[in-house]
Structures are given as structure tokens and as C-alpha cells.
UniProtKB/TrEMBL annotation:
Protein name (record): DUF4133 domain-containing protein
Species in which this protein is naturally found: Pedobacter insulae
Residue intervals passing through the bilayer: 21-41, 47-68
One of the Pfam families matching this protein, by short name: DUF4133
Lineage, highest ranks first: Bacteria, Pseudomonadati, Bacteroidota, Sphingobacteriia, Sphingobacteriales
Classification via InterPro entries: DUF4133 (IPR025407)
Length: 113
């Protein structure tokens, strides 16, 4: 009895679903869950059904286009790199030389050994 197994040829490649890569799949899923909760909340509050459908439909379209655009623009790690680059300070300031004099005495002695 022989079984046929498919070989996964996507090793070390990002997860991709219909053009969405890596974390953007999660962003889209989270956004869709938020839209579902928003629709249910609006419906329970008594907002007209057609207004709910129009609002959620337009927000869903905006969500899809934004996430797909970000996925194509930044790729798998580009958005993380962009956010990390924003957190780098423009300059460092030191009001004392004490830190640097301490470095000379303790760290360099360990390096010389």
C-alpha cells in the first residue's frame, strides 16, 4: 500500500495567502474580527441594517486595500524595520564624562586580559 505525499517546496519562505505575506495575514484577520464585532454592536444598538451594511462594507474595503498595499510595499519585514527605525534616537547627549572614564578603567582591563 503506497501513499502519495506532497513535498513542501516553500521551506524558509514567508507564509503567503493570496498575495498577503507574513504578519499582514494577522492584521487582516484582526481587522475582520473587529468589523464583525462592530457590525454586531451597531445592530444591537438599533442602527438601520442598510446603514450598518454600508458602513461595514466601506470599512472592510478600506481595510483590504490598506493591508494589501502595505504587504506589497513593505514585504515580510519592511514594516517592522520602518517602525524600528523610528525608535532610534536622533542624537545622544551626555552631561558628564564619568561614564566614559569608568569605561576606560574597568572594561579595558578586562579586554587586555
Amino acid at each position: 500500500m503506497s501513499s502519495v505525499y506532497q513535498i513542501n517546496k516553500g521551506i524558509n519562505r514567508p507564509i503567503e495567502f493570496r498575495g498577503l505575506k507574513a504578519q499582514y495575514i494577522g492584521f487582516l484577520a484582526g481587522g475582520l474580527v473587529a468589523l464583525l464585532l462592530m457590525f454586531s454592536l451597531l445592530y444591537i444598538l438599533g442602527v438601520n441594517l442598510y446603514i450598518c451594511i454600508a458602513l461595514i462594507g466601506s470599512l472592510g474595503t478600506a481595510l483590504f486595500t490598506t493591508v494589501i498595499r502595505m504587504s506589497h510595499k513593505y514585504g515580510q519585514y519592511g514594516l517592522l524595520k520602518k517602525n524600528a527605525k523610528r525608535s532610534i534616537p536622533a542624537s545622544l547627549s551626555s552631561r558628564s564624562r564619568k561614564l566614559f572614564t569608568h569605561l576606560n578603567s574597568s572594561v579595558w582591563q578586562q579586554v587586555r586580559q
